[in-house]
Amino acid sequence: MSKSERIGVVGGGLGGLASACTLAARGYDVVLFEKNPWLGGKAAVLTEGGYRFDMGPTILLMPSVLAKIFAEAGRDLKDELDLIPLDPQWRSFFDDGATLDLHADVAAMASTLDAFAPGGAASAGYRGFLDLSERLDDISRRYYFWRSIGSVRDMFDPSATFNLSTLGDLIAMRPWSTMGATIRSYARDPRVAQMLDHFTQYVGSAPDLSPTVLCGIARMQTGEGVWYPRGGTRAVADALVRLAGDLGVEFVVGASVDSIATDAEGRVEGVDLDDGRRIPLGAVVSNSDSVRTHRELLAGRPAASRFERRRRYEPACSGVVMYLGLDRRYEQLLHHNFVFSRDPHEEFDFIYRKGEPAPDPTCYLCAPAATDPDVAPEGGEALYVLVHTPYLRSHHDWDALYPAYRRTILDKLAKTAGMTDLESRIKVERRLTPQDIHDRYRVLDGAIYGLASHGRLNGAFKPANRSPDVPGLYLAGGAAHPGPGMPMVLMSGWIAADALDQDGVVERRGGAVSLDANSSAHTAVS
């Protein structure tokens, strides 16, 4: 029997909130610790001068994951969030002046491609690519999602390894190839290939270094669609905080966890806070970066050494984010847009191999005012600009680098997206650099997307949600299985909670909690 029957969640990002909600709905006594003064992690909000910006994720995919978390408490997602479908899903701007919209409907996309690249090869290739993507998505759902996975060995039942169906699945994953090479076997037009490459940017990795199985992301997006929660993606965090409070989760905000306490046998027994308090706990879900959890919260213990020996942990990319409050809208922009680099190979080489900012980068733009006019004063725009950069290196001084790189970004948007008067339209301007991201969110070397997905076979695997090294420790977030991106982070929180529940390391305080939309349990906030 555990000395304490409370469960602690370290970190109030989306993964930690998903864990807390799932565990509390199943009847556990949960306390969540967050070092920042807000809950929601990167899903924060910036408001200034009448403008409202989502500071972190802006694209909601796979709302079924979020729906599953609310269903744990008997809630219907439709009652919690107003989700607006976006189609076309994004607009691509290319260096040659062409534009291409991505449609969810395959027939509509094929027609668009026939007009964009006449002759039928582009549309036929896209259909073939989506067929493969659907197969890979199906494999992911059967073997990879919704359970704690840390390596390819965890995916398959050894007794069924030589089953013809299983072998077929392994072959379909193309472990001899990469996502980038697979895309180019279907998309001969380099512009179409560049658009499809950017499905890997949900995981902050280079297409030519990432496994083919990540091509399944395309089907995940086109299948369930792209959605905008009214109020921005911050509304997702707010909805989870409300649910957790209704379920009786205790929030300890502004409290930094310095260490995860373990007993003589290496089992979790609590956490030590930066104010000197030790909080006894029966189990811990860490929503902190998985590598920093081991290097900092378990420092000096055998478990940390075992974790380090298991594999090399490479951070995913970081980024520069610009929040620009504008006094006009740009009619050429959709809600989501990619302003592509002139040469993706050069771009990825700089970011992922040389470790330096790309001289001609791809810019992701979120322009939400047409969808949600409340984000800006009338006629204005709350423009979010994200440019991927390398994760932090020791010689990167972003206070010195930023002014010139800001100029590079603005020039790129003027040249390729036709936003020639952008600088003169700025009324509010704020930024995050890789150093800011590192300091603000306590991630590994400023990585936005946790760990890189590089490696033809093992690139898709992150540390398992059930720690193999510390009994009673579970991992959630973008640096744990199944990886980064809003739906995967939310799923990681559910998996960590479910694994803890299955293991029975803590006793429930009572029966599972089911709430209708008009009822609530107690809320404890300290």
Automatic annotation (TrEMBL):
One Pfam family cited in the UniProt record for this chain: Amino_oxidase
Keyword S-adenosyl-L-methionine: no
Chain coiled-coil ranges: none
Record carries keyword Oxidoreductase: yes
One GO biological process term: carotenoid biosynthetic process
GO molecular-function term, one example from the UniProt record: oxidoreductase activity
Family: Belongs to the carotenoid/retinoid oxidoreductase family.
Protein name in UniProt: Diapolycopene oxygenase
Organism, scientific name: Paludisphaera borealis
